[in-house]
Amino acid sequence: MATEQWFVGPLPLDPGETPPPDDLESGTQPCGDPSWSTPPSRPGDPPEPEPEDAQGHLPEAPACTPSPKPLAPSPAPAPPRLSLDTMFSPITEQLCYLLKKADDFQSYLLYSREQVHKEQLAKVMPTFLRMCEPYFLYLEAAARSVPPIFGALQELVRKRLLEISQQLTLRLEQLVLMYASFGFVDLDETDPQSISCFFCGRFSISPSHEVSIFRYFAPAAYNASRFPRCLYKKMRWNLETTPEPSSRGQDSHVDYYFLCYRDTWEDTGKSPANSCPQIQKLWSIGRWVPLGPAEDDLYSWILCPQPPGDYQQLLTIGFEEPSHMLATDLLVQILTSPAGPARPPSAAGPAAWAAQGS
Predict the structure, then answer these.
(1) CB-based contact 241:209 (threshold 8 Å)
(2) Which whole-number Å values give the CA distances from 82 to 79, 96, 117, in the listed order?
(3) pTM of the entire structure?
(4) What is the distance between the alpha carbons of residues 145 and 204, in angstroms, rounded to a whole number?
């Protein structure tokens, strides 16, 4: 059986025959080019048959010249590194969308002449705040997650996420305060229909401890039963403690921490008008210490208009209000310190808590 021959290398030369000049210049030949693989025709030479295997099949010629040594497998290409701007692109797009919605609500309030339309927008405001909750939840959880999930970039990513969270927080405060100034929103927390505070994130500091963040649109009276008086709260953190599966006889409970300030003019006996504005507010972080009603008495809770409590001061910050981000950082340092804010036993009295906070 004779077929057309395709060779990879040059044919052996007869005695006295000179190789073509191209063979001298290049030792390798391109694959798949018939001009390189067709042997020179010599008159009188019959075509040579190709060798067959034992079963009568012709062997297939290799497509390219085999390498004398096997090549080592090349390493897989490293995935391209994304820049921080690329990583944050979906997050910033969502931020722009929420900020745009806030601008629309403000424009309707300022430029709409229909009173009914403004009242409808005021009713939509709680819905808009709830729409921002998943976004806040992602920002705080991703920035403060334990253990870190961003490796070496953790600090850069953490700072950027928290700055975005703070930017949206301040914008929502400005928007709601503007609606409240027109009388369309009630900020009194004693009113069940009010929106005195809003949820702005949750994160875990351990497998059994989660912190939820709430921020008040306007300072609200703390109403401590004892010292200090004239105490106003600006932020609240709920520390939710879940017992481990191995623990028996323990129930989940929630501790409440606050960012508060008190008017220092009360200590000097001067009126606020005669006091220096720079030293009127002394900021601190403290814990709500419940004084009653009894936990096992349901009727006392129903009949109690407001549960009495005290303020266990844990940290004095100073006369300048900390930012939303810094205040939460300070609380995390308090909660994760080696000593930690030990939960007072139920047998301890208010005098012990007052002494600890003084």
Answers:
(1) yes
(2) 9, 21, 45
(3) 0.68
(4) 6
Tell me which residue of 98, 93, 91, 96 sits closest to 127, measured CA to CA: 98
Phi, psi dihedrals of residue 286, rounded to the nearest 5°: -145, 175
**What is the C-alpha separation between 243 and 175, in angstroms, rounded?**
39
Measured in whole angstroms, how far is the alpha carbon of residue 140 from the centre of its chain? 5
Q: How many CB atoms lie within 10 A of CB 91?
A: 16
SS3 percent helix, strand, coil of the chain, rounded to 5, is 35, 20, 45
What is the maximal distance between C-alpha atoms in the chain?
A: 128
Q: Per-residue DSSP letters for 107-139?
A: HHHHH---HHHHHHHHHHHHHHHHHHHHHHHHH
Instruction: Strand 231-241: give its sheet, edge to edge.
Output: 197-206, 209-221, 231-241, 253-263, 281-290, 309-318
**pLDDT tens digits along 185-208:** 899 887 878 899 999 999 999 888
Instruction: Decide if 137 contacts 202 (C-beta within 8 A).
Output: yes
* Two tokens, residue 23: 């063979």
Place of tokens 């062997």: 59
Judge whether residue 11 has pLDDT over 50.
no
Contact between residue 297 and residue 273 where contact means Cβ atoms under 8 Å apart: no
pLDDT of residue 30: 41
Cβ–Cβ under 8 Å, residues 267 and 240: no
Separation of alpha carbons 94 and 208, rounded Å: 31
Structure tokens at 154: 């953790």
Beta bridge partners of 263: 281
From first CA to last CA, the distance across the chain in angstroms is 108
